[in-house]
Amino acid sequence: MSDQKTWDAVDGYFTEALVPEQTEFQKALDASEASDLPAISVSANVGKFLQLLARMIGARKVLEVGTLGGYSTLWFASALPADGKVVTLEFEPLHAEVARGNFREAGYADRIEVRVGPALDSFPGVEADGIGPFDLAFIDADKKNNPGYFEWALKLVRPGGLILIDNVVRDGRVLDAATRDVNVQGVRKVIDMIAKEPRVDATALQLVGIKGYDGLAICLVKE
Ligand code: SAH
Ligand code: DHB
Ligand code: MG
């Protein structure tokens, strides 16, 4: 029973039963596909989980690293009050353009700001503009830069806030300490940083579903 076909079917079952918002956000996935963006957005069930986490902590401001077509961004935006804000950082101008179209189409454009460029170059401006502190940071871009993204998230997320890191399992490749894959190295490095970081309490969860076998790290910034 633990094969991809079953994971797909169970994801479908829970999504249909419990995630009505998916219908509303499907348009963003369709537009992303039409523009040939890679199909690597979070699944609907994980998107809803992200939305619920943001709501559980009463988030008003979210910082996202890695926008793609803005599917996860929309889940966060839907968690916020009308005066809330998502700042999302994206390297690829085409991804940012598709995402902005999706935000307008979904009626969330006023709550979302996309900053285009390598994320590590965008953080100083986000800090200087005084938009934060943020209640939640979602790190989901190039995995090799996870350590730098985590450092910035620690700087910009308030005590009591959350730092989430996507794709920390990757079919179990995270176990390979001798890997020459810089993305796996970036995951292992950030897990090591989290382990040693006194300012956070954390865990990481393995996830299966329509995106296969992967996982999410969850850090609570201590009060
Ligand atoms: N969060 C999205 C998926 C993001 S996919 C969702 O779940 O819907 C990863 C994105 O990170 C891609 O759009 C990619 O272009 C972007 N990316 C890659 N390197 C980056 C960098 N250095 N800075 C900012 N974004 C980057
Ligand atoms: C990839 C990136 C992601 O953020 C993801 O959730 C899945 C896959 C990738 O780069 O392959
Ligand atoms: Mg991801």
Could you write a compact summary of the structure shown?
With 223 residues, the protein is an alpha/beta fold.
Task: Characterize the main sheet.
Answer: 7 strands, mixed
Whole-number total of structural domains:
1
| General shape | globular
Question: Average pLDDT value?
Answer: 98
CATH class label: Alpha Beta
Structural class: alpha/beta
- The overall strand count is 7
In sequence order, what are the helices and strands, one letter per element? HHHEHEHEHEHEHEE
- CATH topology type: Rossmann fold
CATH superfamily: Vaccinia Virus protein VP39
Tell me roughly what share of residues is in helical segments: 40-55%
Give the low-confidence spans. Answer: none
What small molecules accompany the polymer chains?
S-adenosyl-L-homocysteine, 3,4-dihydroxybenzoic acid, magnesium ion
Strand content: 15-25%
End-to-end C-alpha gap: 42 Å
How many H/I helices? 8
Gross CATH architecture: 3-Layer(aba) Sandwich
The oligomeric state of the chains shown is single chain
> How large, in whole angstroms, is the Cα Rg?
17 Å
Q: Give me the side-by-side strand order of the main sheet.
A: 3-2-1-4-5-7-6
Descriptive key words:
binds 3,4-dihydroxybenzoic acid, binds magnesium ion, alpha/beta, seven-stranded mixed β-sheet, 7 strands, 223 residues, 8 helices, binds S-adenosyl-L-homocysteine, Rossmann fold, 44% helix
Note down, in words, how this protein is organized.
The chain has 223 residues and is α/β, with parallel strands linked by helices. Helices cover 44% and strands 23% of the residues. The protein has 8 helices and 7 strands, in the order αααβαβαβαβαβαββ. It has a 7-stranded mixed beta sheet, with helices on both faces. A hairpin with a 2-residue loop joins strand 6 and strand 7 (212-221). It starts with a helix and ends with a strand. Bound molecules: S-adenosyl-L-homocysteine, 3,4-dihydroxybenzoic acid and magnesium ion (MG). 3,4-dihydroxybenzoic acid (DHB) binds at residues 40, 140, 166-167. Residues 40, 140, 166-167 line the site of 3,4-dihydroxybenzoic acid.
